Amino acid sequence: MIEKKIAKDLLKIKAVFFRPDEPFTWASGIKSPVYCDNRLTLTAPEVRLDVEQGLAQLIKENYPEAEVLMGTSTAGIAHAAITAHLLNMPMGYVRSGAKDHGRQNQIEGRLEPGQKVVVVEDLISTGGSVLEVVDVLRQAGADVLGVVSIFTYGMKKGLERLAAANVKNISLTNFDAVAAAAAEEGYIKPEDVQRLIAFRNNPSDESWKGK
Known about the structure:
By secondary structure, the protein is of the alpha/beta class. The chain contains seven helices and ten strands.
C-alpha cells in the first residue's frame, strides 16, 4: 500500500520526525510533536524515486486529463520537474510573489489559458500556501484540476479551506499513516499515537502534551 510505503520511507530518512515529549515550535507558535521536511527526499535517491513514481501514478489515476504540472515555490518545484519528466509533460512553477525585475512573472513556464493544470506540493497543513498558488493559476486562466502532494496532516482547517475553494488534493501519505508506521517501526510508543492524533485534530489545544 503506497501510504504505508511512503510513510516508512519518510521515517527512514527522518523527513518526518516525532518528538511527542519534546515538542517542536512552529513559526506560528504552535507546539508540535512532529517535524516534517520532505526536502530530504531529494537527497535520498531510493526514496526520491518512490515519491516521484508515486506522484506520477496519482496524477495518471486521478487527473488523466492533466496537460501541465505546476510546482509550488520552492518545495514543490523539484518534485514537479521530476514527475513531469516521468510523465513526459510540461511543467512550471508559481512564485510566492511576482518578480520585481525582467518580465515580472509570478508563473514561470508557459501556461496557456484553459490548460488543465495539476499543482504539485510537498506538504499540506492548513492549506494556505497551496491555495494561493491555485488562485494565481486560476486568475491566469488555468483550469486547475487539483493538487497532488507527498504528505498531508489532514487538519480540519486545511480540509475545510480546500473544500471551500473547491480544490481536490490527493496525497501519497498522511499523518495517520505515518503515526501508525512510526509506532509499528518503534520510533514512538504505541500509546503516543493517540496523542499525535489529538494534536492533529486540534493543534491549538495542547492537552495532548500531558497525556
